[in-house]
Amino acid sequence: MDYEDLLEKGxxxxxxxxxxxxxxxxxxxxxxxNHEDHRQYMIAGFIYQQEGKLEHAFRLFKMALKHNPRSSLxxxxxxxxxxxxxxxxxxxxxxxxxxxxxxxNPKYLDLxxxxxxxxxxxxxxxxxxxxxLDKSPDSVEALVGAAxxxxxxxxxxxxxxxxxKANSLSPENVEVEEQYRSLTSKx
Length: 187
What we know:
Number of domains: 2
Strand content: under 5%
Structural class: mainly alpha
CATH topology of the largest domain: Serine Threonine Protein Phosphatase 5, Tetratricopeptide repeat
CATH superfamily of the largest domain: Tetratricopeptide repeat domain
Largest sheet: none
Mean pLDDT: 91
Radius of gyration: 19 Å
CATH architecture of the largest domain: Alpha Horseshoe
Number of helices: 11
């Protein structure tokens, strides 16, 4: 089995069977063949992140960056781990590296906005979501995030308008529905 096969089998073992040990076994064999490629660390990091083992996932994403420092995805995944660990200052520094590498990625901007919201930096969050919506006007995540930021700066009419647009794009989205109830209960 070659390196590419091992990577694929590792990813599939987790994705299809949720077999952590089998997946990591394939990835360890892949590492023996090529320890310089960042993808094995990314896949293993993602698996650990899904399992809630955030510190371990963070270390694997960091190892991936040693082999490919321009991987915006690795920076974003590290920021997600830090966000989930409630280390918002660090998460903000890390996600900004991902945004610097890929400034048009709405998912990266959404994460930056969520981090800023958790830090009570509502005006900055609003600006981040404005940039995200300029680049991707139909991003439900950015619409919801911007609506939360608008609620926090006491601009409920604008928040409700963005929520309605998010609802028209994704009527089954639970977060949009919860946000709508929150917005309308304050009116």
